[in-house]
Amino acid sequence: MIKDRTKHEEADKHKVNNHQDEVCGSCSPQSGTETADNVADESFEPADSVSCADGAAEWKDKYMRLSAEFDNYRKRTLKEKMDLIAAGGEDVIKPLLGVMDDFDRAVDAMERAVDVESVKQGVLLIRQKFIDTLKSKGVSAIEAKGEALDTDLHDAVAQFPVDDQAMKGRIVDVVQKGYRLKDKVIRHSKVVVGE
Known about the structure:
By secondary structure, this protein is of the alpha+beta class. It has helices spanning 2-21, 36-43, 46-112, 116-136, and strands at residues 139-142, 154-160, 171-176, 178-181, 184-187, 189-194.
């Protein structure tokens, strides 16, 4: 009886294996059950691949154009910056040429002058013109003498003993004037501080 059951099981297995190897009417693609090959064939459409390739080519073209435009923009702004720097120097130097002309005239006048006071007055006028020219460009002197030491504006180069307690920690002498260009310090004042 056990042998009979084993024979029936083997026969059933044989039928199942044969059934999977054959394509029967119930397993045909028309019945609604599809094989993996058929599904892959239907999902691949050549028209989609062509449109994807066209889209990729379009995006690549846009990228290349944008990259070229940015490179041109970068070069143009770099050139404009260089021109601005060159023009900025010219803007400062042109007014100073007038002061230089005045110095040349003063040197000529000193050679012929017999009155030292007139030469002195001429040099003072040129100095004032130079100061006014610098002010028109935003340059101003940093006031230091008598002020408290501020390391953002002053460089202490020496300390000097003072008798007045009020002058301790304050600037008693200026060795070299400092200057600002608008709000930026372009040269710190070199100062002597009381101790």
